[in-house]
Amino acid sequence: MAKPIEFKAGTLTAMSAVLREVDNVRLADALQVMLGGMGEFFAGEPTIIDISQAKSLPDRVDWSGLQSLLRRYGLQPVALRGAPEHLHDAARRSGLAVLGDEAAKLKAATTVHPVAAPVAEVVAEPAAGSTGAAPAPADSLPPSVGTMVVDRTIRSGQQIYAKGADLVILGAVSNGAEVIADGSIHCYGPLRGRAIAGAAGNRQARIFTTNFGPELISVAGVFRTFEKGIPAAIAGKPTQAQLRGEDDKAALVLDPLKLD
Questions:
Q1: pTM of the predicted model, to two decimals?
Q2: Which of the 8 DSSP states describes residue 90?
Q3: pLDDT tens-digit profile of 10-35?
Q4: What is the spatial distance between Cα 197 and Cα 213, in angstroms, rounded to a whole number?
């Protein structure tokens, strides 16, 4: 007879919203600039709220309001990291798990190009308590040692993650799909949905496609969205994306690929 409940260890990939302040009005303004007001942008991603980099914190934080703000963009807050003890009880009452000291020591391996106001660095990383290892600092990451090949189209709502490897897609990535790799992403077909390369902090990772048209791209945590449209020079054309610049001044640059 099957047991009514079982507990098994597993690995959960979560987003980390690294907040440099907890003023919900300023965060809302910054997210509007960063994501263009696109509701449900992240399509239900579980999220860790990390305030370890906040320079100053009030005696009280509107955790419910902050969670509502993040949910507006499709993020699902599940835990809090890096908070001082006086904020723990209120966070728990709002439904957030409070991660312990060991989890709080985890550092995001990537940074996001600055926007108009201090806001979250949104990066993919293993959630604390999972069986996955914590991300290493970006400058200590080894190059990818493997390659995952997917010889089909990635449909809307599907997600592919090449952990510790490059990702090669012999097909299209549809709108609403997501492809993630710790190394580079190579898409030999139309790239539509979201492509996240260097997910564990590899700043040398790149994104290549023969037909450029994504909703969002990211390399080592630096995001770029296209709510105002894709530049005509690369729209629907062979393109590569890579980081240029140092640390928090790095920008995600798009270059046409000459294949003939």
A1: 0.55
A2: H
A3: 666 677 888 988 999 989 888 877 76
A4: 16
